[in-house]
Amino acid sequence: MGILKLYERLTGYFSKGEIDVIKIGVVNIDTSHPKAFADYLTKYGRAQYTAVYNDGFRGDDEVESFMRSYALQKRCGSIEELADMVDIGFIQSCNWDKHLSQAMPFLKKGKPVFIDKPIAGNIKDCMELEKLYREGMVILGSSSVRYACEIDDFLSRTEEERGKIMNIYGTAGVDEFNYAIHIVEAISRLAGCNAVSSRFVGRSCQDGKMCETFFVEFQNGVTATYNTFHEVWMPFEIVIMTTKGTYQFRIDITKIYGALLDRICDYIESGRNMLASVPELTDSVKIMLASRISRENHGAVVRISDIPESDPGYDGYAFEKDYAKASAKIY
Q: Which residues form the Gfo/Idh/MocA-like oxidoreductase N-terminal domain (predicted)?
C-alpha cells in the first residue's frame, strides 16, 4: 500500500465540506439497530441509510418497509454493488460469524466499515480483523455503550480529582455474549488498556433465572467484575472504585446511539477518529472468550494470550437461528 493511500485511510476519507450527507450502505437489518440509528440520523441530517443488501432473516416486506420509511435509494444484489454506492458500510447482521466476510467488499474498495456489536465471536476472526487494521483498513465499532456520555464524563475528570481506578463493576442482562458485550466494552474503555486474564467466579440460580459472575485483570493492575443475567433485561450499572472514592452511574440507553453515530460522522467529515481501535474492540471479545473457557474449566484463570486458535468461540449461526425464531416483525 502506498504511503499516501495509508495516510488517507488513517486520517479520513473526506475533507470537511466535500460531502453534504454521508451515504451509508447497510448489510442486513436483523436487529432493531438500523431502525434506531436511522431515526437518529434522520433527525440530525448528517448521514442517511442510502442502500441496503439483505440476506438475513428479515423478509422482503420488512426490507421494503425499511426502505420506504427512510427513503433508501436501492436494494443491492451484492455487497460489492452496495460498496460502490456509499461512503461507509454498516454491518448489522446479528450473526457475528458473518461480519468479517461482509466487511471485506467495503475494505477492498477502500471504504471504511462500521461493524455492529459483537465485532466477532472467535479468536481467528479477531486476529484477522487485527491484521486488516495493521494494514491500514478502517474498521469502526462496535458497542454504543462504550461511548456513553456517563463514561465520557467520568474520564473527563483528571486523575488528581477522581483518583486512580482500582476496580470496576458492571452489570448486563439478556444473555452472556451478544448483549453482555456491551458492559465488557464499557469496562474495557474505563480500564484504559488490554486485559491479561479472566475467570469465571460463579453463578446464582433462582426461580428459573441465572446470573453469572466473571473477574478480569488488566495490564495496568485494574481489576473488574462483570455480571450477566440470562433472559432478563437488566440496566447497565457501573461502579468504579478509585484511590480517592467510589463512583456509581447507570448508563442512559436513550443517548448511546447518538454518542456512537456522532463519532462516526465526525470521523467521516473530519478524519478525527475518536472511536476505539480494532485491538481495543477485539480485546473485549477475547475477555469474554477467556471467561467462557474458564467456566468450562471450573473457574481456572485463563490468560488472554493463551486462548487457542482452535477455540470455537461463540456460535453466530446458532444465535442467528434462535434470534430469528424469537423475533417479531419490527420494520
A: 25-139
Q: What would be the CATH architecture of the domain defined by 146-252+284-305+312-319?
A: 2-Layer Sandwich (3.30)
With bands split at pLDDT 50, 70 and 90, how would you rate the model's confidence at 18? low
Per-residue pLDDT tens over the stretch 195-227 = 999 999 999 999 999 999 999 999 999 999 999
To the nearest whole number, what is the mean pLDDT of the chain?
96
CATH 3.40.50.720 segments of the chain? 3-145+257-274
Cα gap 84→80, rounded to integer Å: 7
Backbone angles phi, psi at 66, to 5 degrees: -60, -45
**Which pLDDT value is given to residue 130?**
99
| pLDDT at position 10 over 70 | no
pLDDT for 20 equals 87
Q: Find how far residue 27's CA is from the centre of its chain.
A: 15
